[in-house]
Amino acid sequence: MNNYRIKKVAHLLTLSLILAGFSWFHPSAAYSAKAFAKASLSTQSKQRPPAPPSTPPPNRTRSGGSLGGEATCVAGDQNLMALVPVQNPVITIREHPTFLFYVPYGAEQVQYGEFSLLVGPDEMTRLYQTRFTLPAEPGIVSVSLPNLPDYALKEDTFYHWYFKLYCNGSTTADVQVDGWVQRVAATPERQRQIEVASPDVWYDSLAEIAAGLLADPNNSLLRAQWRILLEHIDADNLTQTPMVGAVQPDSEPPIGE
């Protein structure tokens, strides 16, 4: 009797194993396993945040802003323009670089301006922000970071800058441009590129020529280099536009907000 029960249990166990093996190798079971794995991967990909891009999106060099902003900030035929290439990366070797803009407005036409610089790629940290007053006349203006350690750019880091103008007293900018800057290591080759006004180290080459023209507007060599750089960004129509100098910051706000 005991032998009979043992044989019966063994038979049932063998049958169970055979059925389990059949289910494992059956095509429908394999398909279900694949579908489950695919669904799991899909869920994981939806939950995982996308990796930040290695290069920022194109710079927005031409003005835009609130509805009707261009009409509110009355100007001539030209619009606000950031003097920077559209495609990134656009680099500097300076800890405290200078940014240049064509502004078709004078101080009387704009209540105030605002320049801010955020640390990329997530822009959760604001390195610098200031309100400013424009020079009296329209022309090429510059904005420089204060020469203080707190405002120094770090190497191999992207920063997103915003240049905004407020003309009608609203809390929304009427016109604005924005773009990116990346600080890279200073090398002998990059120093040489700045000396010959190469567009490869854009921010520094442009700032050097602009500073030279502000001091010596009739320097023919500087004029030629300036024209070449502006042609590089399709802004050769601005080659005769006067340098009117730096904006005047109203105050230095707290950083790291």
From TrEMBL:
Keyword Hydrolase: no
Region Disordered, residue ranges: 42-69
Alphabetically ordered keywords of this record: Signal
Bias (Pro residues) ranges: 49-59
Signal peptide residue numbers: 1-32
Name of the protein this chain belongs to: DUF928 domain-containing protein
Keyword Signal: yes
Recorded superkingdom: Bacteria
Organism classification: Bacteria, Bacillati, Cyanobacteriota, Cyanophyceae, Leptolyngbyales
